[in-house]
Design a protein that fits this description.
Length: 319
């Protein structure tokens, strides 16, 4: 075998012609061909849906980089932002969900995923502050006990789109305090401003809490830094969160917003829908919707949640 001195290393190597014998010809990567080369690789898996998602992701990422002529320094800054977003996230703080929310992606996915009967209560974003395993609460029990604020009773009926009451529906409720903070943002050991209520046989439910206030998204994280590059609002209007589940019905994640509250028209996470904007009625001291008495003025919201019947699974699903 003919040998040739390799100028780059001490020793000898085969000739270039002999080294290339039998090898597949691979194109050199260029700006023009890299997407064409990458797409088949990312579409090579056995899961058709994964292949569809991954190839679309690569295609759109490459198109974005080309459109804006992404510079290496900008790419590096974006990577550092993602790293910091991951580091600040934990089991109580979902900074990536907040990022998805402020970019409008969360609400877009909600809209595409919940195409229900117009009579059904519309869905909106989950948000980054939901916590699992909220304690069970009786009809009208106070989930705000010990927390200052104007008393608020939210009551009504859970029913289906035909008007039939839905008993046994679980209403997972949570909200921020008067400082705009959720339990997940605080160092506390007990459930705070969150609880799970169950509708009665006639579909009725009653939540006792405090009047919510609007608030700004956290100002100590990478998402707020991103939003601060714009002149957009950093605020959410006053609201209470609901996640409602009942056998035979679609799960609905929604809010109730206070009518007239600031930022209804520029919610930083795009979550407001007109069907979810409700009147907070002020009442003099006296009987309350949970059958009790209030010695101080209180507010009430009356709202019926309308559930969408569960859609049948596609044929062959789970096979």
């Amino acid at each position: 075998m003919p040998l040739q001195k390799d100028a780059r290393h001490v020793g000898y190597s085969c000739s270039p012609a002999r080294r290339n014998e039998g090898k597949l010809r691979m194109p050199y990567i260029t700006e023009e061909n890299i997407t064409e080369i990458a797409l088949p690789r990312w579409g090579s898996g056995d899961d058709p849906r994964a292949a569809e998602l991954l190839t679309a992701l690569v295609r759109h990422l490459h198109a974005f980089a080309r459109e804006v002529q992404l510079a290496e320094a900008e790419w590096a800054a974006a990577i550092k932002w993602l790293v910091r977003t991951g580091k600040i996230s934990d089991e109580k703080r979902e900074e990536f969900i907040l990022a998805s929310d402020v970019l409008g992606l969360s609400m877009l996915v909600v809209q595409m995923s919940n195409k229900w009967d117009p009579a059904a209560t519309p869905a909106t974003v989950l948000g980054p502050f939901h916590l699992d395993r909220s304690p069970d609460a009786e009809y009208g029990a106070d989930m705000s006990e010990g927390i200052p604020g104007a008393p608020l009773y939210i009551h009504g009926v859970v029913r289906d789109i035909d008007g039939k009451p839905v008993g046994g529906a679980v209403l997972d409720v949570w909200q921020a305090d008067s400082d705009g903070l959720y339990e997940s943002q605080l160092s506390v050991d007990e459930a705070r401003l969150r609880a799970k209520y169950t509708s009665r046989e006639d579909g009725s439910y009653c939540v006792r809490t405090i009047v919510p206030f609007g608030y700004g998204i956290p100002d100590d994280g990478p998402v707020r830094e991103l939003v601060n590059l714009t002149n957009m609002s950093t605020f959410r209007p006053a609201h209470v969160h609901f996640l409602i589940e009942a056998p035979g019905y679609e799960r609905v994640i929604t809010h109730l917003f206070r009518e007239g509250t600031p930022h209804l028209d520029n919610d930083v996470v795009y979550g407001v829908k007109k069907e979810l904007v409700v009147s907070f009625v002020e009442n003099e001291p006296g009987p309350t919707p949970n059958g009790g008495e209030s010695a101080e003025p209180f507010f009430t919201v009356e709202y019926d949640f309308v559930l969408q019947p569960q859609r049948p699974s596609p044929a062959g699903a789970g096979a």
